[in-house]
Amino acid sequence: MYRRDIARALGAGLVGGGTLAVAQTAQAQAPAAAGRSRLQQILERGTMRVGTTGDFNPMSFRDTSTNSYQGFDVEAMTQLAADSGVRVEWVQTEWAQIVAGIGANRFDIFSGASVTMARARGAAFTAPYFEFSSVPVAAKSAAGRFGSWEAINADGVRVAVSMGTVFEDQARRHFPRARLVSVQAPATGFQEVLAGRADLTLTSNVEASSLVRRFDALTLLPASIEPRNRRPAAFMMAQDDPIWLNYVNTWVGLKAREGFFEALENKWLPKS
After folding, report:
1. Which of 32, 82, 143, 198 is the residue whose CA sits 20 to 30 A from 240?
2. Which H helix or E strand runs over 228?
């Protein structure tokens, strides 16, 4: 499994005293403002400022009954703060502003995002702790027809996706023979499946896990269908602070070896 590969790499490279390329890059840059690492500032004030969007279920979302943040990344950041002996101070932000928020020192760390070269131009990434990917979600009544990606790419199969998303482009590439059902927002691909107007939808592994828990009529396809379009997830922070980056990288490595991230994945992203 990919998460075990991450754990092995982190254990060998971080806990054993090695350094990752991302840390080496950050170390070549200027030190944090005023010569004081954010780690020192966090420990002195007793709080760690964590940027999060609260709109990415089940990674970071608001529990309407308590008006508090919940999710995979929320638990991870809460644990990092606890292991550091400080409290979390949540800073609400938007996806379009996460790099700018890091650069403006609005928060010390962002709760987790896909690693992209565009974001890397303005922020540093820790070692990856999770992997985003694309997976098919089908109506339970139709799931038996699809035991492989190739089975989906067939005449008569209806694949629903939201227009303008990466999944629309991916569906065109992966399933050229199937009938693509592109829907305009606020409609969604999974709603087409629930309504019987499509056999399945292509979405992220994160949303897929949330969907199958919310809707009994939906299911993830068999484990024989491996995820595609994989991309790592990591925590984001400023580029000018190798001490803070190295500290969090060390924490990620230790937690990966302990099985912490695997436990979070099993809790928030069950396979069925």
Report:
1. 82
2. strand 228-237
Mean pLDDT by 10 residues, the chain (272 residues): 48 43 40 74 97 88 90 97 98 90 96 88 96 90 88 94 80 94 86 95 86 90 74 94 97 98 90 60
Number of H helices, E strands in the chain: 12, 13
Q: State if pTM tops 0.85.
A: no
CB 195 within 8 A of CB 176: no
Contacts of 115 (CB under 8 A, 6+ apart): 125, 128, 231, 232, 233, 234
CA gap 191, 249 in Å, rounded: 39
Report whether 238 contacts 32 (CB < 8 A): yes
d(C-alpha 134, C-alpha 81), whole Å: 31
Task: Give CA separation, 44 vs 193, 244, 250, in Å.
Answer: 52, 14, 20
**What does the block give as tokens for 75?**
């638990």
